[in-house]
Amino acid sequence: GYSNPNLNVNFTIIDDSPIASCCLVVDGESNCVDAIENGENTITAQSLSDGQHTWQLNCSDVWGNEEITPEYAVTVVSQAPLIKLGSPAEGEFLLEGGRNIIFTVNSSLSTNCTMTIARNGETTYSNLFVSAGLGPQSQGFTLGHGNYTINITCTDQVSNRANITRNFRVSNISLSLNKEGYELNEPVVITVSPLLSKANLTITRQDLLNNVQPTFSEITSELINFTKTQFAGEYVINISAFYDHQQINLVKLFSISNSLSPRLTTEKSVYDTWEGVLFTLNASGGTEPYSFDLSFGDGANTTTTESYVSHAYERSGSFEVRLSVKDKYGNVNSIVKSVKALNPLLIITRENGTDALLNSTGIEVSASSIEFAYTNSSGLADLKLREGWYNLTATKSGYLSNRVEFYINKSMSITVYLTKITDQDTTPPGITLTSPDNNAQQNTSLRFSFRASDNSVMSCTLQTKSTGDWTDATGAKDIASGSETSFDLTLNPGTYTWRVKCSDAAGNTGYSGERTLTVAATELVELAQIDSSQDSEILRRVDELITHFSTIGEAEGEVVDELDISNQLDRYKFRIQTIQRDLNSLEDRQLSDDERERERSRILTQLEEVKQEIPSDIRVLQKKELTAYPTREEINNLSAEYAAIVNTSSLRRNPKAFADRNNQLQNMVTITAKVIVVEVSYLFRETETISLVIKRIKTDADPGSASLVDFIPKDIAQDADEIKFITEPRILKKDPVVEFDLKDDGTIKYVIKKAIDPERISELKSLAVVKDIKDRNIAITGWPIATIATTASILGLDPNDRRQVSLFILVILLVLGYIMYQFAIPHRLSELVLKSKKKMAALRQIAIKAEEAVNDKNWEKASMFYIEMKLIYETLPETHRDAMYERLAKIADSVNFGFVEQTAKAIEHEAAEGNMEKARQLYAELADAYERLTPEYKKKIAKWGMDIYWKLQREGVIDKLPEASQEAKAEKEAARTDSNTSLQLVSIWKRKL
């Protein structure tokens, strides 16, 4: 049971003889009373402490007969219930209406409580309730004008009693708003009734980032307009006034919602990789001007105030594009839009043996899903695919199907060859003439059109005659069945008969009917519009240009290869075909007339842009090649200029080391520069002259460990906009200074959009630079070796006993030998060849295993892999080490960190076992390991390290430090307030260690 501090034991005793005495024994101490009468009696044990006690009663009569009760337990509670009244506060001024009385009763015993509320001295509410340790309680009331007193009295089951009283006032003042919620820039109308004198009004935004605090010294009207609503958030209205002979405070809350709304649109939802996606950015609500932060979903982002942003996706996939808009006053909102980028695939089907294009070929491309298409009349099909491996199956009636596997990660084309099933074909092609009409009158430039049909592709010839025999005027091969074909021809004035002859793959020849036309001396017909046949003519010309550039002279052929002109022409063909398809599909799209016309205009603009880029011929004007080696002074000057532009902390700290490393790198690098001045002719625009710059870098270093920086004089190129980069650079300075990552082939290329004197090639300065300057002295614990003394101590060996330690070292060496044998370390090392790239590959493989061991917290295994890596790392040339330095250092830090963590656990174990001397030895190991950690890892364990320090000091493992100096106290105080708190803690802990 329970009791207050005085334990009253009531009992009844019956005996035939007089009672000699009764004793109340509490916690082994007796309180005895003599001369007890038969019947009811009470014995009291006073002033017991709070907590549990045991008691029993022992009585004996005058003859020495004794009776003892069982032992009972009682819990003494002297603490009265704790009552907390949260609302209203003492003397608080409230408005009329519904109110909640909020209070808390805390008691360990069942408690009876009474609440009374008196208005103007008269009780208006009384309620009794029972609480067993109740938490927060709330009672709702409707309160009218008047002075109120709340009284709550609680008594627990052992009569401990508590009471609380609270006085407050309720007034008939009204504070209201014209609506519940507001939007940005919407005025807030506040009504205060009745009109208050000597009233001040303050409005504050609750997040305190942008306080809005208009203050009125005297409120002169019941209606108050608050118009500074440019910031979204929660607001508090506070009115301070003198009313009814006392100072009052009125509080009201309202919110302004963020109505700022961003809008993000694109022309379509699916794009080709490397195709520019035009994002249209807009917003409404809030206050202009707007600032947009656009994250493209592929790791790239931009901040702008413009309405249009273009971005090209270099890889395929679905991308979540996030647009965040910020208005003039810092309100922010965002939306997300999905954009998909796919790799365009052009599939060309040809007949095996003849290379004839095959139309109407079924194309099935499968991976996780299946894409299906038919080749068109030109034997082409195009699909859009995600990056990955695919199987392509081509099928056509009369041909054996063919299946190929391919990997796509960019725009590409595939040619699939089908083998014809040989059957006897004796049917000649059928030919229908389309234009010109029979007996037509034409000008001297003519276009002859026809359709031919057969079960295979055909070769067709346009034949004409004015007098005498038929003459072959022009022809074409690989004409697909059913397609309309046109021949352009210029004829002298006169009367002609014309026809078309076609031969199929089986050798059957067919002829069209004959038509007559008259060619006039003057032009009789004007072309009225651009039609698809003209686009077909462009495609035909592009095919001719591909052939032309493949047979061009040696000097020009080098430029064709370096500029990849043949593949460019293939891409132009694909773009024109895509544009044709888009134009043809316009009528099928659900567009209004205006939308269709705008779309047509956009597509034709794209066509015009492609046409402007088609080269028709090139001619090499001048050429010069130079291999030069910069002087040490030039390298130092260029290194200083590069460091000033890049301005990284490592370069600022180590300018001389950076220059020295670059000098070392230059000794291992050969840069051959070439300038070719080329005259380029185009199909649809004027000829221009360009300067192609090619730089080839030969080095023993891993290309990933260095970059090439080009310093281009301003009189050669005013800025980077005058240069077309074939190798993608980083623009360090628009003057221009550009940096290239060295690819595996060590080649960089760019085009200056004008002719330059090749003799100035030496002015295009290049500097091969290391990517960073680091301290290469990687320190690692080397777990099995560096912890021999520690491990010996943990195992109970005496570190000063040479025989024991020698035996222990021998065991460790045997374990190391077994581990090296188990993981085949000597074998792997013996297989490493001297070539640096193979060493790097081996190093990366071992690093993967080391990182797996780190993730598993297998520190011994990770340490062994690290030792293996270190052996290879130290044999690498200086310029190779950058590529693996960060990875190697991270593994070293991880193992050291693991050692620190495990040593700390060992310290706690030894301290708990009372082995203070061993704990102190381990603590010294811990301090040494801490010194080997990098600042990043020291920051991770700063607070943890301080906790260990104080714990070890409490347990007597280490002595308490002397009182800190004033300087140390100041530093510690700064650590509490400085933004670099963790760094300060590291400094303090390091001093303690």
Short description:
This protein is α+β, with helices and mostly antiparallel strands. Helix content is 27%, strand content 40%.
Summarize the SSE layout with pairings.
Layout: E1 2-3, E2 7-13, E3 19-26, E4 29-34, E5 39-45, E6 51-61, E7 66-68, E8 72-76, E9 82-87, E10 93-95, E11 97-106, E12 110-119, E13 122-132, E14 136-143, E15 146-156, E16 161-171, E17 174-177, E18 181-183, E19 188-193, E20 197-205, E21 223-226, E22 233-243, E23 246-257, E24 261-265, E25 270-272, E26 276-284, E27 291-295, E28 301-304, E29 308-312, E30 317-326, E31 332-351, E32 362-366, E33 370-374, E34 380-385, E35 388-395, E36 399-400, E37 402-408, E38 412-420, E39 430-435, E40 440-442, E41 445-453, E42 458-465, E43 471-479, E44 484-490, E45 494-504, E46 509-511, E47 515-519, H1 532-550, H2 554-563, H3 565-584, H4 593-612, E48 615-627, H5 632-646, H6 649-653, H7 655-667, E49 669-682, E50 688-699, E51 706-711, E52 723-725, E53 730-733, E54 737-741, E55 747-752, E56 765-770, H8 783-786, H9 788-794, H10 802-822, H11 825-831, H12 836-855, H13 859-873, H14 882-912, H15 916-932, H16 935-940, H17 942-954, H18 966-977, H19 981-992
Helix pairs in contact: 1-3, 3-4, 5-7, 12-13, 12-14, 13-14, 14-15, 17-19, 18-19
